[in-house]
Amino acid sequence: MKSAEKQLISMLKSFSTPEKIEKAKRYFKTGKGDYAEHDIFWGITTPEIRYVIRDFTFTLSLTQIETILNSPIHEARMAALFMLVARYQKRDEEREDIAKLYLNNTKNINNWDLVDISAAKILGAHFFNRDDTTLLRLSQSPDLWEQRIAIVSTHHHILNDSFDLTLKLCQSFLNHPHDLIHKACGWMLREIGKRSPKVLVNWLNIHYQEMPRTMLRYSIERFDENMRQAYLKGKI
């Protein structure tokens, strides 16, 4: 009999087709030297993944979920993260173990979508109103994905009207070389603007001329056209 982990992965694979695989490989930039060069995609959609995990999320042990998180298959790792998020939100007694599991497996949370579905809901929630040391440490890691985990985790803080850590990390990333960090920072800044336009504008007025173009564009997406153009043309 197959283990539960193998059953889940087998069910995921049943939704894969050659066409889906090729589409996913193009979307996630798997070419030589690209950020997803070594990832393996089955092209399974999020609704399909959620359908597969519905009977496993609260029956597997955390150790079994960790095994799935160590899969070379991208969608299997996504399935594991969806399950961890659900468990973190529903089982208070497991939260400490889930946060530790997440931190011990950041090497497997190695694409922007994997980070974005999980970081704020696990690490952001876990470290909100606690010491910022862990998220600051991740932000200073040489690993791109740990850096993205750090900034995206602060989305939880933003939703609770706490902006200081996000702004601190965005400032530290102003000279970052990778657009995946520029996009993440711009996204978080835009989220701040939804909660407090004044906080965003005050920060932009200090830093916009040194911001990477992508970070700036993402952060001002919700501004009216005249204001957007003023920032883009350096006329604030």
Key terms:
236 residues; mainly alpha; globular; Leucine-rich Repeat Variant; 2 domains; 0% strand; 16 helices
In words, what does this structure look like?
The chain is an all-alpha fold and 236 residues long. It folds into two domains: 1-108, Leucine-rich Repeat Variant (Alpha Horseshoe); 118-236, Alpha Horseshoe (Leucine-rich Repeat Variant). It has helices at 4-13, 18-27, 46-53, 62-69, 74-90, 95-104, 112-116, 119-127, 133-139, 144-153, 155-159, 164-172, 179-195, 197-207, 213-219, 225-232. α13 (179-195) packs parallel to α15. The longest helix is centred in the middle third of the chain and has 17 residues, at 74-90. The radius of gyration is 19 Å and the shape is globular. The termini are far apart. The mean pLDDT is 96.
- Helix-strand string: HHHHHHHHHHHHHHHH
In the predicted model, the low-confidence regions spanning at least 5 consecutive residues are: none
Count of discrete domains: 2
Oligomer: single chain
On the 0 to 100 scale, the average pLDDT is 96
